[in-house]
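In practice, a research group might receive sequence data for several interacting partners and want a quick structural hypothesis before committing to experiments. The following worked case mirrors that situation: the sequences arrive first, and a predicted assembly follows.
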Amino acid sequence: MISEEQFLKDLRELLETDEDITMDTDLLEIDSWGSLSAVEFLSMAEEKYGITVKPFAVAEAIFVEDLYRIANGR
Amino acid sequence: MCKLLTDYLDITASVYPGKNAFIDQEREITFSKLREEACNIANVLISKGIFKKPVLIYMEKSISMVSSFLGTAYSGNFYSPVDTKMPAERIAKILDTLDPAAVITDRSHEEKVRALIKDRDILIYEASVLPFSGTDMTSEIRKKMDDSFTLYVLFTSGSTGNPKGVTISHRAAVDFTEWVSECYGFDETTVFANQAQLYFDLSLQDVFAPLRNGSTTVLIPNRLYASPIRVWKVILERKVNTLVWIPSMLSLFANLELLGHFEKADLKTVLFCGEVMPVKQLNYWIKHYPETLFANLYGPTECTEACTYYNIDRKFNDDEVLPIGIPCSNTVALVISEDDALVTKPGITGELCIGGPCLSDGYYGDPERTKESFIENPFSRSGEKIYKTGDLVCYNDMHELVYIGRKDHQVKVHGYRVELGEIEAAASSEERVTYNCCLFDPEGERLILVYTGNIDEDELKNILKNKLQDYMVPSCYIHRQEMLFNENGKINRKALTAEYIN
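A structural hypothesis for the assembly, expressed as tokens:
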């Protein structure tokens, strides 16, 4: 299981940001989360965590925690 | 027949006074209230003696922005909307060219505007829409206007580093609105989900079609598109039935497999324009919406919005290219070969040149560049103008136009038109950059800046962020010890492309 700390570090790296991001953060509150970020997250999940994510699950994500659950295969 | 865009609203406000014209995140506005707001703004401008002058509009996508457009038009002036995130340096260039007589902004941007723009009349939207205390002067102004009056100036990327202001008349806007409304049967039941920014020509039907047809447009903040599910919920809640989006956005919804997993929307028409639509993603949309009409629109800002169109009427394989189709009504589309001959047969490549009432009056304050791009039709004796699009096309066997590529260094990044020269000019203005060349990687839709000089990548990126709009800032930087030149001493773009892209 990926730790919360590691996941947030990976997400910041993906978005090339040092914004304050927590599990409760709404994705739309992250300036660097753009329309292409969902697709980039799919690639990251596969490359970094070795999991294949269903694209629509990412489309449904509202909070960072939703992405975390997806990354942990839940 | 309406001559001015505002004539549409005069009629529709009396036919559908209580119907919603626009909806944004804050409020809804009926046609009669929209007209009232616009006329109040117009009277403020008229009372200041401003007539036939440019008015800069500085606010976020909103109903207030639409009211400001229309208020400017009712006053006999013309509007020029700019992105509120545009760097100060680029705004300064636009102000130099446009020299606006006034700026309309709202309270939330007032401080920023006052800091950015000096010595101009600044109108605050919230104060300007209050009931006008004097006599209404809009009908007097109307008598002085005809359809040759400029309606708006939209700034696009320019190769020399200065944005170009494309000037569009009421006649061109009305001609486009007539065509798109008739061709796609827009009426009072049409509900648009707007995607494009209102300073982008792809938004034109979202703003103009309601005025003519009594349709409704839901203005969706562009930020919301970073959360596709929330956009889809708006589409369902507002019973949206018409989309006019850039292909990148339609592709995103397809790549996230959104259509198959969420409630179906009542989509009747889906149009796309601004860049090449990948057929694989289009086929995904068609699979989920087989009854919907899909159409590929093509047109540069200089031809108002669309000047050719192709309604998808047959099946395409994922690796095929969609045609850009046939000219819209009232439009002339000529294909001119390298040796200046008129191309009529399939398979021969030439530059697409467009004529007709959709044509821009040229680049604002730039007769030189206007002369270069808007030429006399060499195949007609009447002396009418045609616009050289710079796009290479050919006819297919069905005599439909097919887009092949660009003649120059203009590219599309997420639907936005970008001149690589403008990025290079911005990088060159930094003294620590010796040489630079901007490349475009179409696969990843990435801008790559190859440069030499004594500056690191992060610093150069930050400098460019202050000079260029966000979509123009390269995402990848390659620092070289020496630049590559060809035998003429010019930067060897071809070799750099081969090295870093192919």
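Before designing any experiment, note the following. The first helix of chain A runs from residue 4 to 15. The helical segments of chain A are 4-15, 37-49, 55-60, 64-71.
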